[in-house]
Amino acid sequence: MHHILLINPNSSATTTDMMVAIAAAELPAGFAVDGVSAGHGPSMIVNDIELAAAAPEVERNWRDAGSHYAGVIISAFGDPGIEAVRAASRVPVAGICEASMLEAAQGARRFGVATVTPELAGAIAARAGALGLEHLYSGIRLTAGDPRALAADPQALEQALAIAVQQCIELDGAQAVVIGGGPLGQAAMALARRFAVPVIAPIPAAVRHLLRQLQAR
């Protein structure tokens, strides 16, 4: 059995369980997912300060988990700590932002991001730039209201994100849309079934990205 380590840079164990279930459903036989949550910090990262503070916690989670894992997924949309973990790890490391943007951009598609965190808009755009995808990035569309309150209401979250996805498509010309956030994982799965344009759920995208890296070895 090959074990994948999923690091949730948010501190919510409930969110980690949700992420693990989504990732496990994407894996073939012979693989399992173990999830760990940040030991401290917010239940949901919503701004640049919290994103930066999550990076050393991700590194700590990775070090404490041991060296028996076949791969690592960093499950926050901003990929905090990915460079340090990737540099030190002997196994593939996937971030949900990186993986979902790369998948969305396949075939030179223009892609947008629909999410709930306006204070992370700059960091998300910077991630697209760091991946060399700025020429394909059509921009971000945001839901209204407090991100944490919205994320706590699954029905309202899905509906608000659906509007943001539609705006990405109709107003920005996006040919694919990424749902920007690990805690938005369940809504992302539901939205992927609602649109003719590809809607990329980030956790499954990270699993697929990691499996491709493992197969290439």
Describe the protein in words.
This protein is α/β, with parallel strands linked by helices. It contains nine helices and eight strands. It has a four-stranded parallel β-sheet, with helices on both faces. The chain has a four-stranded parallel β-sheet with strand order 6-5-7-8, sandwiched between helices. Strand 5, helix 5 (121-130) and strand 6 form a beta-alpha-beta unit. Helix 1 (13-26) crosses helix 9 and helix 4 (96-104) packs across helix 9 (202-216). The longest helix is centred in the C-terminal third of the chain and has 19 residues, at 154-172. It is globular, with a radius of gyration of 16 Å. The two termini are 17 Å apart. The model has no long low-confidence stretch (mean pLDDT 96).
Q: By helix and strand content, what is the structural category?
A: alpha/beta
Strand content: 15-25%
Q: Give the % helix.
A: 40-55%
What is the number of beta strands?
A: 8
How many strands, what sense, and barrel or not for the largest sheet?
A: 4 strands, parallel
Oligomer: single chain
Order of helices and strands, N to C?
Answer: EHEHEHEHEHEHHEHEH
Count of DSSP H/I helices: 9
Q: Tell me, briefly, the overall form.
A: globular
N-C termini distance: 17 Å
